[in-house]
Amino acid sequence: MDEGGSHIRRRVSIRKRNRPSLESIFAAPTAAELKPGDEEEEETVAGSRRRKTVGVQPVKHSDSEEDMFGDYDSFTENSFLAQVDDLEQKYMQLPEHRKHATDFATEDLCSESIKNKLSITPIDNFTELKTDEHTKNQSGHNDVTLEPGADLLYDVPSSQVLYFENLQNSSNDLCDQSAIERDWNSYYHKTVNEELPHNCIEQPQKNDEFSSKIRTGSDMNRRKSVKDDLKSAMTGNAKVQTPIISRSKQLKETLLSEEINVAKKIIESSSHDLGPFYSLPSKVRDLYVQFKGIEKLYEWQHTCLTLNSVRERKNLIYSLPTSGGKTLVAEILMLQELLCRRKDVLMILPYVAIVQEKISGLSSFGIELGFFVEEYAGSKGKFPPIKRREKKSLYIATIEKGHSLVNSLIETGRISSLGLVVVDELHMIGEGSRGAILEMTLAKVLYTSKTTQIIGMSATLSNVEDLQEFLQAEYYTSQFRPVELKEYLKINDTVYEVDSKAENGMTFSRLLNYKYSDTLKKMDPDYLVALVTEVIPNYSCLVFCPTKKNCENVAEMICRFLSKDYLKHREKEKHDLVKNLKNISSGNLCPVLKHTIPFGVAYHHSGLTSDERKLLEEAYSIGVLCLFTCTSTLAAGVNLPARRVILRAPYVAKEFLKRNQYQQMIGRAGRAGIDTMGESILILQEKDKQQVLELISRPLENCYSCLVQEFTKGIQTLCLSLIGLKVATNLDDICHFMNGTFFGVQQKILLKEKSLWEITVESLRHLTEKGLLQKDTLSKSKEEHQYNFHITKLGRASFKGTIDLAYCDILYRDLKKGLEGLVLESLLHLIYLTTPYDLAFQCVPDWMIYFRQFSQLSPAEQNVAALLGVSESFIWKKASGQAVKKKVDKDVVNRLYLSFVLYTLLKETNIWSVSEKFNLPRGYIQSLLTGAASFSACVLHFCEELEEFWVYRALLVELTKKLTYCVKAELIPLMEVTGVLEGRAKQLYNAGYKSLVHLANANPEVLIRTIDHLSRHQAKKIVSSAKMLLHEKAEALQEEVEELLRLPSDFPGIVSSSIEKA
């Protein structure tokens, strides 16, 4: 300050103080590492808002915020803060100031002019100055606090207190309004527009007028000094660069980001240090505790995750018994890929229901950790997937959709963006056409991307060596089960324990002592009632039955002989379950379920609708239902374990049980964390005893490629896609690719008469004859291996639409014929064109129902039948049993019948009424609807590749949506959320949740109270899935905006300038 004292000159000191980085903040010392004086020092330097108190002893501040000034406060004679302290010391020497710790001098001199001229308003870059009420409460004293209007410090930042203190001591004209305004505006202009550097804070140079003052420590017990207020204000101003986000949230996000970066470096290096949680941020571990209750990994999981092959990113196959915890290992590896290596991940699962379950389970992780979870099942999924700039995607897909996704990534040159492919139930590679599709998917990934890792897992693998050779993978196995499993066989009333050491494979265990009446013995010769009542209702039980009808009969039979006491067990919850089943089915309820649910018993098979199945599974998982009679599909589907598993007979339908099937069924016994033991009991007759003993002692069945066995869905489809994707375009390259497939590994076993070369040549010839491929020569040589193939328009349409090549020419013909007289007065004609061919070939119409429905058609709808060549007289003759002389295409007739079913369903949107009209199981009708929606999406992609079918494109987009959801339009936005089916969507809509935004912002606790029979777990999953879907849509729109605003790379000016530089 100059001698006149009218202005303050601010100069930047050369000395700069390092500001601690966020990394050092998070690396907090442990209690053991702290020195005795550290804690006290930290408390002493913590800053807070200056407060005026009378006669109060100093209190220790427990402010959690770090001291941003560290050890460099520089309270020496030449410092700016020293000037403040000196000034204050001067006033404390006066009697009135010693008597009163509060300084009113500044207010007395300047309050009038300041109040008139200074109006302090919050600025976006500053925190609002407020009294620290928290500190007040902690002090334990009755502080005398001045009113905000009376205290100048409420109106002026603490960093300006020195300015007004100096005003008092210099001259009377220091309160001149223009000077105050000038310096005030100068201060704000500089502070708002100059960001503080991260590594330093400006330090004003010493002031000669106050440098000679000697400071003493005699007033340690006085109130908090101006220096603390100044420090507090500067701390606040330095922290408010992001005022919207709380400091704690900032710290958490920064910590997560830092840990991800550290983990990424660890993974990329050869270090064996796994970091906080298997090379993942510690937040991942916390989320597993929060969402899944997993606090510690099993020993085998730790061993598997620390394998050298995993660290080196080699392909891996691992096999463990059912319920051993295989999925958790895969999830951790997927999170490493998404968060640390910043690559997309594909997870392939066998069924739509499991895909949806996994989507719901991982959406909450995606929201917390910043990646997308995208569903590829049924008609859902975008090809090619949206290319994300920042966040990565976890694609969860069925086998078929996974194949289409890989094709689209290869075609767009993005296959290298796929860092990891995880396959659950890897043994399915040997199961028919779905196995062939899975094999093709993995073979393409292996051939086109050397950086993509493949992880396969299964509970039932036998010939692992072949799979290892195919996938070029390491193998890990363990016999670990979290719960011990005991296997039993029951013959008549005797129970035997399976014992591999015994001579005949079993030892006597016990006799059943349940008292049976003569009537009960006739109804239940297998003693099922005795076996189930040993565990229910306190424990759960599964009874596997050979057929769907047998499931229903067994459920009714068991309930007929259960005591009335079972009705009282969780009676209210069972009543609510029945009520909810009626609500989702428009007041309808299966008579069998109506009788069995009050006893805690239900059947579970494909005859149920998705809504019914979901409600029953939820009720079983929380113990409201204690017994399921089910078919073998439950063993491979969603995870529903039980204390005891009973196999009603060693048959699946009419076929004798396979070892793999048996292993999957008994694997459901024993619930980790609930049961101490699991039991399986196989009921058999004396005649089947020898076969069963062989069954339990033999190894698992080998897995064999179905690539050639499924000719049109296998090798032909593979050859077409290889040429379409330009992965291999001549015979030599295609054969080279074929040698790398699972079939190529097993060709010596599978091929007896023809060689792989001959089969490949035959496949290419078939495709050429069908008009899907054309060939030309690279040279004048006539040798066949010199031919180069290219795909035709029809071939590309078939490949893009993933149409079964057995039907592609029929589909083309039907669509072409439809253009001649497409009837658009109703949806019937379009529905016929999207009815799946494979389901039509299996259909057996009820001719009387067919005729009744035909006679109710409108003239326009009858016109559709006439165009297809199906007349009313033909249907009448079939219904009345008369001979039909006129030749009519049976497949067209059957397909039209299924079209009637779908058409009626779209009009009525009530599966129960349609089931009654056509005398078909409601589960079959829903499967038909799902199949039609999926096939409609395929036909749409087929038409997009052929210009002549342009008219179908817009029509099929809307039809696909109708078939996918089959509900009123207002429910569709809710049903887009994974896990929300029609019944739940109606409940949510009626409760006021009418859009995706509503659902994404819902409170799970409120949902539980509002929606009937909704568990907390399900509510959280629904909200997480809605948030994930909303984020995906928002991100996609943002990407589109950025793309539109970005200057094209081929912009004329840019191109010409780059040419000039070159």
Automatic annotation (TrEMBL):
<dbReference type="Pfam" id="PF21099">
    <property type="entry name" value="POLQ_helical"/>
</dbReference>
<keyword id="KW-0347">Helicase</keyword>
<dbReference type="InterPro" id="IPR014001">
    <property type="entry name" value="Helicase_ATP-bd"/>
</dbReference>
<dbReference type="InterPro" id="IPR050474">
    <property type="entry name" value="Hel308_SKI2-like"/>
</dbReference>
<protein>
    <submittedName>
        <fullName>Helicase POLQ-like</fullName>
    </submittedName>
</protein>
<keyword id="KW-0067">ATP-binding</keyword>
<dbReference type="InterPro" id="IPR001650">
    <property type="entry name" value="Helicase_C-like"/>
</dbReference>
<dbReference type="InterPro" id="IPR027417">
    <property type="entry name" value="P-loop_NTPase"/>
</dbReference>
<dbReference type="Pfam" id="PF00270">
    <property type="entry name" value="DEAD"/>
</dbReference>
<feature type="domain" description="Helicase C-terminal">
    <location>
        <begin position="527"/>
        <end position="715"/>
    </location>
</feature>
<dbReference type="InterPro" id="IPR046931">
    <property type="entry name" value="HTH_61"/>
</dbReference>
<feature type="domain" description="Helicase ATP-binding">
    <location>
        <begin position="307"/>
        <end position="479"/>
    </location>
</feature>
<dbReference type="Pfam" id="PF20470">
    <property type="entry name" value="HTH_61"/>
</dbReference>
<feature type="compositionally biased region" description="Basic residues">
    <location>
        <begin position="7"/>
        <end position="19"/>
    </location>
</feature>
<dbReference type="InterPro" id="IPR036390">
    <property type="entry name" value="WH_DNA-bd_sf"/>
</dbReference>
<feature type="region of interest" description="Disordered">
    <location>
        <begin position="1"/>
        <end position="68"/>
    </location>
</feature>
<dbReference type="InterPro" id="IPR011545">
    <property type="entry name" value="DEAD/DEAH_box_helicase_dom"/>
</dbReference>
<keyword id="KW-0547">Nucleotide-binding</keyword>
<keyword id="KW-0378">Hydrolase</keyword>
<dbReference type="Pfam" id="PF00271">
    <property type="entry name" value="Helicase_C"/>
</dbReference>
<dbReference type="InterPro" id="IPR048960">
    <property type="entry name" value="POLQ-like_helical"/>
</dbReference>
